[in-house]
UniProtKB/TrEMBL annotation:
<dbReference type="InterPro" id="IPR001348">
    <property type="entry name" value="ATP_PRibTrfase_HisG"/>
</dbReference>
<dbReference type="Pfam" id="PF01634">
    <property type="entry name" value="HisG"/>
</dbReference>
<keyword id="KW-0368">Histidine biosynthesis</keyword>
<keyword id="KW-0808">Transferase</keyword>
<keyword id="KW-0328">Glycosyltransferase</keyword>
<comment type="similarity">
    <text>Belongs to the ATP phosphoribosyltransferase family. Short subfamily.</text>
</comment>
<comment type="function">
    <text>Catalyzes the condensation of ATP and 5-phosphoribose 1-diphosphate to form N'-(5'-phosphoribosyl)-ATP (PR-ATP). Has a crucial role in the pathway because the rate of histidine biosynthesis seems to be controlled primarily by regulation of HisG enzymatic activity.</text>
</comment>
<dbReference type="InterPro" id="IPR013820">
    <property type="entry name" value="ATP_PRibTrfase_cat"/>
</dbReference>
<dbReference type="GO" id="GO:0005737">
    <property type="term" value="C:cytoplasm"/>
</dbReference>
<protein>
    <recommendedName>
        <fullName>ATP phosphoribosyltransferase</fullName>
        <ecNumber>2.4.2.17</ecNumber>
    </recommendedName>
</protein>
<dbReference type="GO" id="GO:0000105">
    <property type="term" value="P:L-histidine biosynthetic process"/>
</dbReference>
<keyword id="KW-0028">Amino-acid biosynthesis</keyword>
<feature type="domain" description="ATP phosphoribosyltransferase catalytic">
    <location>
        <begin position="54"/>
        <end position="228"/>
    </location>
</feature>
<comment type="pathway">
    <text>Amino-acid biosynthesis; L-histidine biosynthesis; L-histidine from 5-phospho-alpha-D-ribose 1-diphosphate: step 1/9.</text>
</comment>
<dbReference type="GO" id="GO:0003879">
    <property type="term" value="F:ATP phosphoribosyltransferase activity"/>
</dbReference>
<dbReference type="InterPro" id="IPR018198">
    <property type="entry name" value="ATP_PRibTrfase_CS"/>
</dbReference>
Length: 231
């Protein structure tokens, strides 16, 4: 059996991901970049490396195109319906930390919690003649958190593919759901995180696609054990 491991070909996780595999005794040859999609592990004919972007890795884990991938938990949970049925987080890798959060304008002084936000959402149409608008690229996580976890149904998602934190000031949305690490982008945009507004604490993970062929595979266990030992 050959096992395919997807590693980030670019972006903030690329170097740390390769370094962990090297420490695990799986040295990657053929450094990924936008034009070089395949790599190998020195001395291992049974492992193939696919270089993809972080969000492509989440997608390939979902459709079983790769066996393992290194990517952010946020991208896996946003990208895959029923994520826990289709993948397993084999190891948390200790880098790429970022929280997916609900943030509102600082001047909303009486809004500190999701319950407060639920009250605002309920009154919004009466007061403003439209639903509360949330700018985000995290549609699935937002819907799960607002509708399923907090029972808030009266809102509208405005798709944002960049500069999400600018949406409230620009008038294209009222609040945001986005990733934050240092918090400085939120502060610069006069936004505050709700007290119970952390949807997900994400970091880079070794993710395994759940496949029947992995049952009882020594190679699959070896890869997981090696990576865990390298942390
Ligand atoms: N400050 C941050 N901003 C955005 N993402 C961050 C930050 N810190 C860590 N991450 C994590 O990095 C991952 C995204 O990595 P990156 O932005 O390098 O991907 P990318 O190469 O742009 O991928 P794609 O092109 O597919 O979107 C996410 O899992 C995210 O949680
Ligand atoms: O909490 P902070 O440390 O301020 O980081 C958060 C910001 O960083 C990311 O954007 P980035 O500029 O990295 O671009 P990207 O979204 O294209 O990755 C993210 O989308 C936030 O806007």
């Amino acid at each position: 059996m050959t096992i395919t491991i997807a590693l980030p070909s670019k972006g903030r996780m690329k170097d740390d991901a390769s370094a962990i595999f090297e420490r695990a005794g799986l040295k990657i040859s053929g450094i990924g970049n936008d034009r070089n999609y395949r790599g190998r592990v020195d001395g291992r004919e049974d492992i193939e490396i696919a270089f993809l972007s972080a969000s492509e890795i989440a997608r390939e884990i979902g459709n079983g195109g790769v066996d393992f991938g290194v990517t952010g938990e946020d991208l896996v949970r946003e990208g895959l319906a029923d994520a826990d049925r289709r993948m397993e987080i084999a190891a948390r890798l200790g880098f790429g930390h970022a929280d997916v959060v609900v943030a509102v304008p600082e001047i909303w002084l009486d809004v500190a919690t999701m319950a407060d936000l639920g009250d605002v959402a309920a009154d919004f149409r009466t007061r403003h003649g439209r639903r509360l608008a949330i700018a985000t690229k995290y549609w699935r996580l937002t819907q799960q958190f607002f509708s399923s976890q907090h029972g808030i149904q009266l809102y509208r998602i405005v798709e944002s593919l960049g500069a999400t934190e600018g949406a409230p000031a620009a008038g294209s949305a009222d609040i945001i759901v986005d990733i934050t690490s240092t918090g400085s982008t939120l502060v610069a945009n006069h936004l505050k995180i709700l007290d119970d507004g952390v949807i997900l604490k994400s970091e880079a993970c070794l993710v395994r696609a759940k496949k029947p062929a992995h049952e009882g595979s020594g190679l699959v266990s070896e890869i997981v054990e090696r990576v865990r030992a390298a942390l």
